[in-house]
Design brief:
two-stranded antiparallel ribbon, membrane, Rhom-like_SP_proteobac, 8 helices, Rhomboid-like fold, Rhomboid-like_sf, transmembrane
């Protein structure tokens, strides 16, 4: 059974990585463009699956591929739900709260949210609590660093400025999703 679960995760990761690579080829059709966002609604999701370049793509896909394995309790449908819920939350937050953001591409905001959501839920499990707390502390430290010291090294590596607002919005979305999930499990399971 465990081998089957691992194989499902590998297939899921391969699908997501391939899907994102396909979108990357035609990235202009899929990035976040504030001016036409509500007319081209698919960009609410796809903006987070295209990247400013292949290095940016590779870094985000590596971080994505690690997530299902460092938190082994998480099921595929949890990841799928996060990948469906976080992108429009971040995109609509850009649109309504950060109207100066005209364009965006990248999965990092969603990744921040997914890691926070999964780690927050894992705080409930005694065996995983320490590791989950460590992950949350590292993400908090990263957010503090980015918002005080900047992300010059990362920006140079990917060849584009880092939009730290995406990371912050992803974390906010991840916390909200984790709270909803925990409350749902508590009251309805």
């Amino acid at each position: 059974m465990r081998d089957q679960f691992v194989m499902q995760k590998i297939i899921f990761i391969a699908f997501v990585v391939s899907f994102s690579a396909c979108l990357q080829v035609f990235s202009d059709w899929f990035i976040y463009w504030q001016a036409g966002l509500l007319k081209e609604f698919w960009r609410l999701w796809t903006a987070h699956w295209v990247h400013v370049g292949w290095t940016h793509y590779a870094l985000n896909m590596l971080a994505f591929a690690c997530l299902p394995f460092i938190f082994p309790r998480v099921k595929i449908w949890h990841f799928a739900a996060l990948l469906l819920l976080l992108p429009p939350f971040i995109s609509l937050s850009f649109y309504y709260f950060f109207p100066n953001i005209e364009a965006y591409a990248g999965l990092s905001g969603v990744l921040h949210g997914a890691y926070v959501a999964v780690a927050s839920v894992h705080l409930l499990y005694k065996k995983e609590r320490s590791f989950a707390a460590l992950v949350l502390c590292l993400i908090l430290g990263k957010l503090i660093w980015e918002n005080t010291m900047g992300s010059v090294g990362t920006a140079e590596l990917i060849g584009s400025p880092v939009l730290v607002e995406a990371h912050l919005l992803g974390v906010i979305g991840g916390v909200m999703i984790a709270m909803i999930y925990v409350l749902w499990e508590y009251f309805f399971e």
